[in-house]
Amino acid sequence: MLISASVRCVGFVLGALALAGGSAAGAQGQDPFAPGVRWSAAPTAGVPWIPTSVEFAAGGELVFAAGALGSPRWMVFSSAENSSAPGAATPWLSASAAPATLSNMIVRAGDDGDELFGLCQVPDPDTSHRRTEIARFDVLDPSGMSRLWTHDMGWRVNGAAKLAVSADGTRAMAVVHDATSQALRIEWLDGASGSVSRRIDLPAGTLRQIASSADVGVLALVAGLELWVFDSNGATRHFEVLGAATQALALSGDGSTLLIGAPGLLRVLHWNSTSFVERARETAPVNEVPVRCALSSDGLTWGAGWWNSTTGREVRLELRGAPGDSLLWQELQSAPSTAPQNYPEALCLSADGGRAAFGLWGSQDPQAEVLLVDRAQGAVIASLDLPGSVLSLALDPSATRLAVGMKHVHANQFGNTGEVRLFDTGERDLQALAPARLGGALSVTARRPQARSVWFLYGPRAVQPTVLAGVSGVLWLGRARMRAVRVSADAMGRADANLPLPPLVPGVPYSVQALFRSSAGSSLSQQVLDPLAL
């Protein structure tokens, strides 16, 4: 009876569609339903760079990267690239930075594809001072990766700078430190124009770390031995003098939970509507130093990377959460005294806290430099042993893809090249096989065991998802303008298709979802693609 109901429902839904002709598309590169490195991008001969910062953009469809040092540049890659040759992937878009740009290049992105922001520091007026610039890039400009605006923070300093961007791209926040005057400048910027909406200058020691809520409405920073938390109006929400300087600082997406570290100590502070109060603490031997940490959006799950300051070669990685900030997973890495220094360089947590990604310098041994941990399983579900060190790391919104910025050699060894790698867990039931190109076709594939056929649904997203009677899953596309292509599945339940892309301007909303038909009934793919056609 359920099967019959499913068939009637699907017939009703698809019968109202304007069907487009489809054909199976040959698989390109690697198996998209197997875990592996989908692509890697490395410098060409004579154009060296090292990826100091990587971010996912456009809902995970793009990878935004900063290549610093030798030939500094901003680069945008497609997550749908599937190239089996090491280092073969090339940027969709690239923009050169000033030739004298220092190694401090940071990329940040909002949810949409055109919300890409970068910070860089350039020597000015001499090699002892630097100009700090923030820019917003337009990847939808047909002429290339242009800058919508550039903002100069004004000071000529010899200190560090940091950048944060709201999830919706409407606000950016930048902090720069001047070591000479021991002062800090904080600026809140309008995401659309780059204009300064608020500025704070205050005496402060060396800038160590910043963290912000998802809307940049709450900002936390560590400068010298001081911890500051500001609200969206620039008012001080919390201040304390720390016992030691630290880079272990994190803020939950809702701005209500704060992690702050010290040698042998990591504290969890929670906002009770009037102040931050301690919710929990983890203690360790004083030579264990928390150097990286991250929080979920609701603050109930958190991860940390601890470093042994005595040996320099031991690290401890952990994931904790509710109830009671208890230990959910932990891994120790150690190495002999002849090994190079290991260090937890990067830590990412999915918004829901379901997965955490750790990136290390490594010890030049078989131990992994990249680990992806699943909270529910309490285990590592993917790991990568790299030839060099992780310098930057990003986890996509679905927590099934990792963008890794790595140096080709160990972090403590001289080298001026590196590469960006995209790792896919292979869990997605719907994948793009190649980047989307305007005026062309989108090559897609879907797989579900026992599926006999697959309907590839494509068109604009719906304002609200729809639950269809007799069909498991949720329909995320708008039915009024949705089109479909039917393809028979192979023995593995896989089907491929080429879908026409709208011949319109770049960035037109366009989504793809799969409907699987089997003897057991009909079900919709969990994955929805939102390709950004350029």
Q: Tell me the strand order in the biggest sheet.
A: 1-40-36-42-43-38
Tertiary shape: globular
Kindly state the number of beta strands.
43
State which percent range the strand residues make up.
over 45%
Q: Name the average pLDDT.
A: 90
Number of helices: 1
Structure classification: mainly beta
Major beta sheet summary: 6 strands, mixed
Please state the CA-atom Rg, rounded to the nearest Å: 24 Å
Which spans have pLDDT < 50 for at least 5 consecutive residues?
1-28
Q: What is the percent of helical residues? A: under 10%
Report the end-to-end length measured between terminal Cα atoms. 46 Å
Would you give an account of this structure?
- This protein is mainly β and 534 residues long.
- The protein is 3% helix and 51% strand.
- The strands form 11 sheets. Strands 1-40-36-42-43-38 form a 6-stranded mixed β-sheet, with helices on one face. Strands 2-33-32-31 form a 4-stranded antiparallel β-sheet, with no helix packed on it. A 4-stranded antiparallel β-sheet has the order 3-4-5-6, with no helix packed on it.
- The longest helix has 14 residues.
- The relative contact order is 0.13.
- The N terminus is likely disordered.
